[in-house]
Design brief:
Strand order of the largest sheet: 6-10-11-18-17-16-15-14
CATH topology of the largest domain: BirA Bifunctional Protein, domain 2
Low-confidence stretches: none
Number of domains: 2
CATH class of the largest domain: Alpha Beta
CATH architecture of the largest domain: 2-Layer Sandwich
Radius of gyration: 29 Å
Structural class: alpha+beta
Helix content: 25-40%
CATH superfamily of the largest domain: Bira Bifunctional Protein, Domain 2
Shape: elongated
Strand content: 25-35%
Number of strands: 18
Mean pLDDT: 92
Length: about 500
């Protein structure tokens, strides 16, 4: 820390010296004519040698400096890439070069000049002018301790982005992934919409919401846990293909797979079933992966995954018996299921229904094993309060969850559009809430009323964008793909 403080003190002294000489430390009058990517595109059209005809005005953060007395090579980076510049006293003038010597790595600079190739063949900007655009008072991390510690990287993501090219690449890829999803749906006439993030009744998923208070209205509101019920209201209203890339919030624990604030893609398709969604999902994931990676084959945490071939399908019960080692004879016996869970060291907090016990066993015993793309089908009604019952087995619903790389990536189902059945399920959820299940779905009378006006047969799906980005960037933690993940405030116990 003493070393850091000394470096900061030295920079402050340089800044004062520059200011005393009339140098503006934070000017705003330098005009950029070319970004780094533009210069690189221009170079692609040039023969080897020198381009002294064209003048380029570029700017960026100085990230490297090699000084040789009367000249210096430096590297600067803007939002499109990194480039080299050559500063020579005889080119910029003695006074300008003297001031340049007071610049530090980390400062933002503006450079105007022509192009030439060095002896090693690297195209370089020969500076005719070099100006300070923003003085950095703190040295970049590599000057004193580097930036490898995950906690510091997440807390100071701006430094993480400066120092680690792979981190920048993750978030560039993230933007391309979300754009590809949008493109896929837009090409199929889905309408992108926005629904409320503050809601009087949290709904669309079983989760504990964040609660706030609106002063003017004088009532409690909740950050949405899912946009589902509002999107389905739009289907009732006649928008039969809708989607939203949304931020949702759940007041739950933080882990490598969970952040309380996260991004979902949720979409609804009228006159379709969950089987239609399965086909659409296979096509969509293959399309997005091909668009972003140039192939449907990639490696995630050492496992080869191919989204271009047919995906495995298992019912929930088949998955539990074949992969989880659960005897099918236990499926309908709540007490024996609890004994089995106890024998495996699995703590089950929601014990009222066999469906919730089965879901817990699945999470622990099966989910980590689902590395290759797998649709798990047919979930019990008691853990699927918004999904349509299966006509042939009414105790189950027409629902699937998609797993890739040992993570749940998507959840979809044929939507329940029977208002009587929906109200009954809400009432059952209220009973569970009164018994202590804070995640149970609340009653939404307005949504039931919307269904009473009629909703066409519909299928809907939610996709975890953060987890899908994890797959295509091959990172094991959700914090690596969220720019500013939630962290405990420093100093709080």
């Amino acid at each position: 820390m003493d070393e850091l403080n000394e470096l900061i003190r030295m920079r402050c002294e340089k800044a004062k010296a520059l200011k005393d000489e009339g140098v503006h430390l934070y000017p705003n009058d330098f005009r950029v004519s070319h970004r780094v990517i533009d210069i690189q595109h221009h170079i692609a059209t040039q023969d080897e040698g020198v381009d002294s005809v064209n003048i380029f005005a570029a700017a960026g953060r100085m990230v490297g400096l090699r000084s040789f007395g009367k000249a210096a090579f430096l590297h600067f980076r803007d939002g499109t890439g990194k480039f080299q510049a050559y500063i020579q006293r005889d080119e910029v003038g003695q006074e300008a070069y003297r001031l340049f010597k007071k610049f530090d790595v980390g400062d933002f600079i503006g450079i105007k000049g022509s192009l030439f190739q060095t002896k090693t063949g690297e195209w370089t900007l020969l500076a005719k002018e070099c100006r300070l655009l923003s003085k950095a008072m703190r040295p970049l991390p590599e000057k004193f301790h580097g930036l490898k510690d995950p906690e510091k990287r997440y807390r100071q993501r701006y430094l993480d982005l400066i120092m680690n090219a792979n981190v920048r690449d993750i978030f560039i890829k993230r933007a391309k992934i979300i754009d590809a999803f949008r493109s896929f749906l837009s090409q199929r006439d889905f309408l992108e919409v926005e629904t409320p993030m503050m809601q009087p009744i949290p709904g669309g998923a079983d989760a504990t919401p964040f609660k706030t208070y609106h002063n003017a209205l004088g009532e409690d509101l909740f950050l949405r846990i899912a946009p589902e019920l509002y999107l389905k209201r739009l289907v009732v209203g006649g928008f039969d293909r809708v989607f939203e890339v949304n931020r949702s919030f759940r007041n739950e624990g933080i882990s490598t797979r969970h952040n309380p604030e996260f991004t979902m893609l949720e979409f609804y398709l009228a006159y379709a079933t969950y089987e239609d969604l399965i086909t659409l999902t296979e096509e969509m994931f293959a399309f997005v992966t091909q668009q972003v990676l140039g192939t449907t084959l990639f490696t995630y945490q050492g496992n080869d995954i191919d989204l271009g071939r047919p995906w495995r399908r298992l019912t929930l019960k088949d998955a539990l018996s074949k992969l989880g080692g659960v005897d099918p004879s236990l499926f309908d016996d709540r007490l024996q299921l609890l004994d089995f869970a106890k024998s495996k060291g699995i703590q089950v907090t929601k014990q009222r229904h066999t469906g919730k016990i089965l879901a817990k066993l699945f999470d622990v015993l099966v989910e980590p094993k689902l590395v290759e793309p797998t649709f798990v089908l047919d979930y019990p009604v008691e853990i699927s309060p918004l999904a349509r019952k299966n006509d042939s087995t009414p105790e189950m619903t027409e629902r699937f969850e998609l797993f890739i790389g040992g993570n749940e990536i998507a959840n979809g189902f044929s939507e329940l559009n029977d208002p009587v059945d929906q109200k009954t399920r809400f009432i059952n959820q209220l009973a569970e809430h009164e018994e202590g299940d804070e995640e149970a779905h609340q009653m939404d009378e307005d949504y039931v009323q919307a269904l009473e006006y009629g909703m066409p047969p519909t299928a809907g799906e939610g996709i975890g964008m953060d987890r899908f980005v994890m797959l295509l960037t091959d990172v094991p933690s959700i914090r690596e793909v969220i720019l500013f993940p939630l962290l405990k405030t420093v100093g709080h116990s």
